[in-house]
Amino acid sequence: MTTPPRPTPPAAHTGPLPWVKLRAASATANIFKRMIGEADPKSRAGDLVAVYDKSGAPYGVALYNPKSLITLRLLTRELAGFTPEKFFAERLARAVELRRDLFKLDAAADAYRVVYDLGDGLPGLVVDRYGDFIVLELYSLAMFRQADLLERLLSVHYPGAKFVRRSSEYTQSMEGFQLPAGPRTVTRVKEHGVAFEVDLTGGHKTGFFCDQRDNRLAVSQLAAGRGVLDVCSYTGGFGLYAMKLGGAKSAVCVELDPESCRLIEKNARLNGVKVEPVCVDAFPYLRQMAANSRTAGLVVLDPYKMIASREGYREGRQKYVDLNRLALSVTAPGGILVTCSCSGMLSWDDFLAALRTAAGSARRRVEIFRKSGAGPDHPVAADHPEGEYLKVIWCRVL
Fold this sequence. Notes:
This protein is α/β, with parallel strands linked by helices.
């Protein structure tokens, strides 16, 4: 039996980083297993590596994990003079500058996204600010290994911040790392003067949906005198904004998770407003509401991600049709429906088509007057359109 030849480093390779040579280039920052040629025998999962194209020319620096489907996550095309400290310091400073200096988010809220993955050139990392807490959501082994450095560099911009690290069990299993369990951490934040209690360790995502901040404010501006139905409410965001800022007549918040319903009640008390939390699945609730001929003047649909994989696309798309048909059936004539999708795999065209199908089935005329997405703290990289996951359609229902 012959021994396979030892991988040969590219002639251009110098410096301390292990190297990886590509078989094929990628149009995006994500480089998959099939695109990898050779790898430095000294390279290990979770390393930062110097990347070279198939001709041996410098290609950049990436996060490396041969056990992951995304084997390389490209950080930069600038290989010369790369050091982790300098690179991460510059990228984090640039991300903070966007939020604080350009968009002045500190004036509106003490909860916002500080780093949005590829949108900020930091693949495998999401960072959210919640008051005095900074939450790191880690999607790659390499970012997990850089967490101490990231926290130290973020402390420059948020002195005295307390840090929380999160990662789903699925990500930890796929990437090959384990976060130690920490204590339950709860804090309070404000957006446009509306207060929320946030569970940083047990809540969905990093504890709160910062992406809907601008849409919550816009909903409040349409709520005056209307009965509001906030469906898939999570912790009551749209309903609370409508009552506290918008002068809504009433707000019903429909949410299946009992713990989230308790947070809705607590958040209502924090804001000195009255909302009605209903702890039930949205589909049967809306069916019963329609059967009882009950309507609302402003309906917001913000369901969980109903398309999680390509295999589940058809079933998930049909759920969007069904949920929107039910919502249209309980929207008062002349009322407003604000319908959301956080499924990145559902395109704008398909979301609009689902709404058209739902409108036809419900026999309602729908006039779309606005389309929106996540706030500016969720920038989308031009070569990663999947980052535009949140889609919101605003319409009058006749």
